[in-house]
Amino acid sequence: MAAASFGLHDLYQQVKSVAYGIWRKRWYMMAATWLICLVGWGLVATLPYRYESSAQILVDTDSLLPSIVKDLSVEVDVGKRIDAVKKTLVTRSNLEKIIRRSEYLERLGSNDGALNQLVATMQDDIRVISLDGGMYRIQYEISYSRLSDRQRAEVARNVVNNLLAFFLEGGTDGSDAGDRNAQEFIDKQIEDYAARLNAAETAHAKFKQDNIDIIGGSSSFLSRHDQAKEDLRKTRNEIGELTVTLTTLQEQIQNVPATIQNAVSSRSRGGGDEDPLQGRINEQKKILDKLRNLGYTDRHPDVANVLRLLKTLDDEAKVKQEEVAAELSKSASAGKNSISSTETPNRLYEQLMFNIIDTRTNVKRLQQRETEQQKLIGELEEKAKKVPEIEAQESQLLRDFKQVRDRYQEFLSRKQDLQLRIDVTDSDESISLRIIEQPNLPTRPSGPPRLLFMSGMLVFALMSGVGFALVLSVLRPVVLTVDQLRMQFDLNILGNVSRSLSEEETRQRSMELLMFAGATLLLFVVFAGFIVFDMIGGTG
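RESULT FIELD:
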């Protein structure tokens, strides 16, 4: 009995120590609780409301067509038809129609990636449930955060309404699912072959345009090639003739002096005519400009001769100016005649030089023409080698075009036959569908359970705060009683002294206790505010 009492007392001391340690870290506990609550409640508050709408349909299979339809090889299988309608109800084509009919959904699927994700989500959220007695329920639940609560409710009802319309259209449509699938397949093939036919026509037209000078046959190449060779032969003959002429002119100019020495009286130079020496200088400058325009550098023999002659003429002009100045300074001998020699340009030399320049120009022009004609002949010879290959390619393009055209016409014919069969099958009225429950506009969200989440978050935050304070107290423990002190230290304890609090300390502890209670009360007030906000939002 004493051992049991000692155990209970020891347990009591341990619990008291833990409780006191937690109480010492109460503000850390309160801060952790507040932080977890605010973050958790904020996250829960951001969860969008889910709105669900549904409709109920009765499928009546009592009315059947007379057995005369068997003569048309049309079988009426109600169960198979309803199953086919259920499978095709949430196909991508139907969902894209629903999205295009809704302004809000179309805004959500503004691009290809968003549209694919929206279609996949709608396929998961749409349910067609079979009930007893031929009843079917169509349900759709939406939770897109980008839409408001009212918009989500409207979208849910509109989607169910469109699905209901698709279900009715599919159920009253008497055509077999296989015929419908075959019609879709043939339409797709016709579209595919129409695109391939247009591509084949475009490819053939482009091929003819790119090879318009080859498709005419090899005879046109032969005449063009012969004409090009004849033009090249004439050009080479002209180059040869001009080369001989140029050689002759160059040999002649070697024996002709560039200038001629003349004796001139000083009185005769006083006339008003232009100075012959200056005229020669101008002529040589013109010759120099022509040579440089031909691309000759100063090292070319002809350019060097002209530059040398120009230097000689410039020196002579300077000497002449000095002589004129000397004559004017001699007033005593002003009436006498003075004889000086001067050089005049050799007209024959200049004419030969002009002929050489003109001949060289013509040679360069003909050489350029020769190069272009050789290039043209090479191109014609290369194209002539490709004539058989190009003709074979054209034949292949024509065969492909005819094959695609035949397949296209065949699918058109099959489509007409299938359409006749579907028109006959459409007369089937074996199924009667009645709407038992119209799509409703949800006024309250179907989820998520925010109240449950917020309450759980509050409990979790309180437990986390206590745990956090407990961890802090364990890391920095405090001894409360003499027994705990004996357990911690192996020493003799003479006694203990109780601490008496002053009035100031007592008042300070009371204030801290009130602040802690106020913080705790405020936490529950904020929790109540979130609950009220959730209730108001849920009813809106």
